[in-house]
């Protein structure tokens, strides 16, 4: 095993539509673990064989037409711990997948968007964040080297968006969303990308509309939170920005953290 492990997250925005792009990224960057969001496919339609061909084991939690999360591991099969969050038996969305892999506890998440504000979708977002916090507290109590990564649909601070004014009415930037995210950090989790880029200006999402990519009108909503046991093993964290500029790209770009192997 190499001296470091790379755990990455990629909101692929439709795994079937963007499979060539996804395989290209996996082969070019070779993350040890890749958490995927918005796979937008039912379980039986997940292209596991395509990942096996290039050496990745996979688990997935699909849903017809939207949402859906998956986890890939290079040369390993992730050992599933939990799918979905406790606390709301009526919530049937596929948004959470947790597994043990490479000696780490890895949780991949696709947090609700929450628009329009106010409304039931925003209320659902905030409830989901409370349920996530409860699960993260359980993981923390086990004192595991753990990472929770994915599309959080929260712009944590004004430095994380090209124009705070342009996004001020959006669910991603509401004080309640930001407060819920800040509570996760206050519980002892480390925002890896922010820690290594304290001045901000790092984007992970550019809308398809209004030439957002060409004008670099982006924001940071894809995050990687590390438990105290893992935070001191952080080597590097970043964004694979160039993949947003490729043909038929997702509107998100991959984010990753490099962690020292103990």
UniProtKB/TrEMBL annotation:
Active site: 110, 151, 252
Domain Endonuclease/exonuclease/phosphatase stretches: 8-252
Class of this enzyme: hydrolase
Keyword Zinc-finger: no
UniProt-listed InterPro entries: AP_endonuc_1, Endo/exonu/phosph_ase_sf, Endo/exonuclease/phosphatase, ExoIII-like
Cofactor: Mg(2+); Mn(2+)
Keywords: Hydrolase, Magnesium, Manganese, Metal-binding
Gene Ontology terms, MF aspect: double-stranded DNA 3'-5' DNA exonuclease activity; metal ion binding
Enzyme Commission code: 3.1.11.2
Annotated site residue numbers, Interaction with DNA substrate: 252
GO BP annotation list: DNA repair
Site-annotated residues for Transition state stabilizer: 153
Pfam families reported for this sequence: Exo_endo_phos
Family, as annotated: Belongs to the DNA repair enzymes AP/ExoA family.
NCBIfam families per UniProt: exoDNase_III, xth
Protein known as: Exodeoxyribonuclease III
Protein species of origin: Novosphingobium flavum
Classification lineage: Bacteria, Pseudomonadati, Pseudomonadota, Alphaproteobacteria, Sphingomonadales
Gene name tied to this protein: xth
